């Protein structure tokens, strides 16, 4: 998600959570150690908070950081020690999956084309 969209999304979620709790911007700002105008800029999507501030916001607003960052459950492991999604794959395939995670989308698309052509190729005897 690009920076501007993430800022807007985070601000919207923070505003909705604050309103759900019946708090004013000044109250949330005070509880998180921010100046009210700084918190207002965060809610309007004009400023991305630093990680420690994001943590305090999550605690004050009663939200998990993944909600503030617009992460879906599929994008977040339930715990640090949770097995990776490919945990049951054979070792060689796990290594391949880990390698592919760092590839740009265009490169993965090209690999998919290559794999499809190999999959559809006649079997050699």
UniProtKB/TrEMBL annotation:
<dbReference type="InterPro" id="IPR010982">
    <property type="entry name" value="Lambda_DNA-bd_dom_sf"/>
</dbReference>
<protein>
    <submittedName>
        <fullName>DNA-binding protein</fullName>
    </submittedName>
</protein>
<dbReference type="GO" id="GO:0005829">
    <property type="term" value="C:cytosol"/>
</dbReference>
<feature type="domain" description="HTH cro/C1-type">
    <location>
        <begin position="15"/>
        <end position="68"/>
    </location>
</feature>
<keyword id="KW-0238">DNA-binding</keyword>
<dbReference type="InterPro" id="IPR001387">
    <property type="entry name" value="Cro/C1-type_HTH"/>
</dbReference>
<dbReference type="InterPro" id="IPR050807">
    <property type="entry name" value="TransReg_Diox_bact_type"/>
</dbReference>
<dbReference type="GO" id="GO:0003677">
    <property type="term" value="F:DNA binding"/>
</dbReference>
<dbReference type="GO" id="GO:0003700">
    <property type="term" value="F:DNA-binding transcription factor activity"/>
</dbReference>
<dbReference type="Pfam" id="PF01381">
    <property type="entry name" value="HTH_3"/>
</dbReference>
